[in-house]
Amino acid sequence: MRSNIQHHIIFIGILFLTGNVLFAQSYTFPEYTSYQLENGLTINLMEQKEVPLISISALIPAGAVNDDTKPGIAYLTATALKHGTTNYSKEDIDKTLDFLGAEINTYAGKEFAGLEAGFISKDLDKVMPILAEIMTQPGFDAEELQKEKDRHLAGLERKKEQPRAVIGQFFDQLIYSDHQYGTITDGNLSSVQSITREDIREFFNEHYHPSKAVISIVGDFDLEAMKERMENYFGSWKGKEAESTSVDGLPELAESNQVLLVNKDDATETTFYIGGRGISRNNPDYLGIMVVNTFFGGRFTSMLNDELRVNSGLTYGARSRFDTMKEGGSFYISTFTATETTEAAMDKAIEVLKKLHDQGISEQDLTSARNYVKGQFPPRFETSGQLAGLLSEMFWYGFDESFINNFNTNVDQMTTEKVKEIISIYFPKDHLKIVMIGKATEIEGIAAKYGEVSKVEIESIIQ
Amino acid sequence: MFRILLLVFVLCPLLLSAQLKASDVDTFRLDNGMKFLVVEDFSIPNANMYLFYKVGSRNEYQGITGLSHFFEHMMFNGAKKYGPKEFDRVMEFNGGANNAYTTNDVTVYTDWFPAASTEVIFDLESDRIANLSIAPEMVESERGVVLSERRTGLENSPWRELIYLINGMAFMEHPYQWPVIGYEDDMKNWTQEDLEAYFETYYAPNNCVVVISGAITTEEVKKLAEQYMAPIPAQPSPPKVHITEPEQKGERRFTHYREVATPYMMISYHVPEATHEDYYALSLLSAVLSNGNSSRLYSSLVDDKQQVSQIGTLFDASFDPGLFTIYALASPEVNTEAIESGIYEEIEKILTEGITEEELQKVKNQKLIEFYQQIQTINGKSNNIGTYEVFFGDYAEMFNAPEAFNKVTQEEIKEVAQKYLTHQNKTVGIIRNQPEN
């Protein structure tokens, strides 16, 4: 076997050189129909007749950016949609869906509220009337709302047990301060306690309207018959005329490093984010930024994971991410490490970020990142649920199937020159915004090394 | 022509999943005992390789607990042809990604890649099975990684801690008693020799089932398997795990203090292994109790009495007799005795009255759609086919599962509940705040 070594080395060389040739096959987005009802509701329909399943994804411009003085109201409204409708009690809904093995989930994120459903196609006419009423005629049962609030309040109390569940929210507060994007979607104790059924009804009337919403359906159905159904179920959905979501301009960030130190008394490790302002989803360099981030902190061999995990054993994992929304976004490095190795891990993370700026990406590393991004792309659109979700996202963020169809070509156009430009424009270098969650008495001194420190308790996220 | 071909790629996956049948799985075994299961699926230009090694924490003993999982990590740290870091670098350069997981029973390595890179994946996998090289400096940095993995799991989830504790009490003799991640002191003391012995014993081609699904033909897989895997010599069969957990003769109970918003509770009952005739009835019983808002436990304890904010059951296929667990998260100000009684009341109803015909049909419907969803993707196919092959002894059992569920009667569900959900067979664990004083 020893004699194979030489042969193997040559073989690796060939693989590196021919990296691009391996990816002749690519992915093309399936055909679909897109149109609007008279009330402005956008409908996307993609037939996939061969499977006995149907998936639905709907987005409504009713996210937490609209919470205003009642943090948590978008969340509670979305959840309460399933608490009974004009013609179905909560019990009817639960029993019917459970019996069919069907799922309808409603949720609210920062920017939009949404509904996702999946069921066997033969049950279409049993599920659809329920789904349509959930979206357009919720009853907001008072007793169910009280139960939901109690469960939710208990959930809020538990957040202090889980640093990873709250660190993103602390980070957003640092990045966006009072801006709508800093809103905490699940609200806080006093606000959730005070929200009434009338508040929810009002929020629904104000924000759940068809003109800025989308419903995408993928699966086994007949196109013409489905168009008729959509007209029947959603044609009479009125709702007031939508204003465009009024997101204010983003506030200026302080031109200095800032550290938010979050105390958790019983912590045995420090969980931290390091980052700054990022990009919006429609940034023209979106794809290029994703390729660079793959190399920097988006895969196992990334610069961050290599240094913080593989070389030093400081953590189980280190990564970086651009969180993108319609009008802006954030960038952060995230990891965690034992309390006693906090400084080593923070130093290392900042050093790796500096290295990205100083050294850029070599031709071979760029090829690797491009190959990886292309190779991992097709499985993201394999199921009817994934395709329905993608169609709705396209509507929300304003991109189309050319993003999919030109994906490989566009990824291949990334050059080391372009990479340099992207790093210097989009990856923060100075004025870093840092959140550390851990045992403050042990790490306070370390925190001060990285910038001006403000200190809060982990419970403050729900107060 | 290309465009048409691509269109076919896109439209096929669901067709194949809906119609996937046992005969679509091609199988062959190499002379060294390595078994292959292949599903050709050209729906997307990707493929995967799932390698199931029949080794997990049940094969360990005190002193080396956690070694199976640690070994899973070490499998990425260098072999003969591809040295430290090269496994991941070469895989990612070729568009592939990977992960791995370890359970009580098995260690599974998962590779996802463009089908055009299949040969590279074979080369990488065969290199580490044939010639893993365990470098001492990699052992030390990786030890830090798994200690961090253990710490971060405990830090972020009281459930994690409760599961460790309840296994430790429900199993007094069988190795299911220790956590897959290991005891902290063992983790700090594994030696190079432990690792080398483990590799010798368990990482043999005859102890591995390989599942490949995706845009590649069985013929091509066979050729690559012969070329890359066949030269690896077979090893003697690993020692059998001979410990059987003695029958539990009386309730066991513990309380563990930790700062929590409200108490966390688990009630675990000993139940048989996957191949036992009661498996399907137990699986449906689990669904009757906790699947969906109309399930027995949810509708009673969450919705009606509002004693808990979360409730569920855990029941999985296992090599040896395992646990059927009910877990609950208390609502504020509700005492755990009331919750426990509420759970027992619901169990009692099933023991005496059984379940309704409608309930039975409901959970059967749920199992069917679950089955469809699991095989919607090439990854779901490989994972499920491999799991059935190793846990039930035959991948074909996966295709019999809908029928096996369908055969279960109301009476059988009542019977398994009576047989296993008994007072003397249970262990109750609670995590709560330390009382003041």
Briefly say what this structure is:
The complex is a heterodimer of chains A (463) and B (437). Chain A has 463 residues and is α+β, with helices and mostly antiparallel strands.
Structure write-up:
The complex is a heterodimer of chains A (463) and B (437). With 463 residues, chain A is α+β, with helices and mostly antiparallel strands. Chain A is 44% helix and 17% strand. Chain A folds into two domains: 33-234, Metalloenzyme, LuxS/M16 peptidase-like (Cytochrome Bc1 Complex, Chain A, domain 1, 2-Layer Sandwich); 258-462, Metalloenzyme, LuxS/M16 peptidase-like (Cytochrome Bc1 Complex, Chain A, domain 1), CATH 3.30.830. Chain A has 18 helices and twelve strands. In chain A, strands 1-2-6-3-5-4 form a six-stranded mixed β-sheet, sandwiched between helices. In chain A, helix 10 (286-297) crosses helix 13 (363-375) and helix 11 (303-311) packs antiparallel against helix 12 (342-359). The model of chain A is unreliable at 1-24 (pLDDT under 50). With 437 residues, chain B is α+β, with helices and mostly antiparallel strands. Chain B has two domains: 2-229, Metalloenzyme, LuxS/M16 peptidase-like (Cytochrome Bc1 Complex, Chain A, domain 1, 2-Layer Sandwich); 252-432, Metalloenzyme, LuxS/M16 peptidase-like (Cytochrome Bc1 Complex, Chain A, domain 1), CATH 3.30.830.10. Chain B has helices spanning 2-19, 67-74, 86-93, 118-131, 136-156, 158-170, 184-187, 192-202, 218-229, 279-290, 296-304, 336-353, 357-374, 378-392, 396-407, 410-420, and strands at residues 25-29, 35-40, 46-53, 97-102, 107-114, 208-214, 252-257, 264-271, 308-314, 322-330, 426-432. The longest helix of chain B is centred in the middle third of the chain and has 21 residues, at 136-156. Mean pLDDT of chain B is 93; it is low at 1-17. Chains A and B meet through helix 1, helix 3, strand 5, helix 5 and helix 6 of A and helix 1, helix 3, strand 5, helix 4 and helix 5 of B.
